[in-house]
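call fold(seq) -> tokens
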Amino acid sequence: MCDYAITLQTANDEKYIDPLLNLTFGEGRISRPSYAFRAGVLPVSELCFAVKSLDGDLIATLRFWPVSIEGEEALLLGPLAVQPNLQGKGIGRRLVAEGLAKAKAMGYRLCFVVGEAFYYGPYGFELAHPLGYDMRVPVSGDKFQVVALQGDLFDDLPKGVIQPWFPSSRQTRHQTQAIKV
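ret:
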């Protein structure tokens, strides 16, 4: 196990994030539909995390992005990346748990992810298509998932196609700041 600290990302972390994402997902990651979906959108700065070793090395990263569902602001989780030699040690799981807890405390009701069901299921994520959700980019039905952060029933939550949320064109209740992506 490695000792580490979870912090909010800073401008200084930027030069280390893309290399970590490339190492974890490959340089072709930017051609994936979820990257196209986030193009031109700023992540929610209060939900952009860096995990650093006690020596200050970046070992993991996670960001949440604003999306809109029937005019309500929601979140898209990802990407989550952990240094390959440290995967399987619980760092990513702790990061996701803390990120979702903060998103819940901020009042978000819905969070979406495109990821493995076995990984995100323990956090309450369920397959999104059967619940009435879709994305405007092609996405695998067995990876597109949603969680109700406040414990609402999905019947009581907005449904439809999630869209990128552009705070510059709409009022947002959550501050977004420029973080280079």
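The first helix runs from residue 14 to 25.
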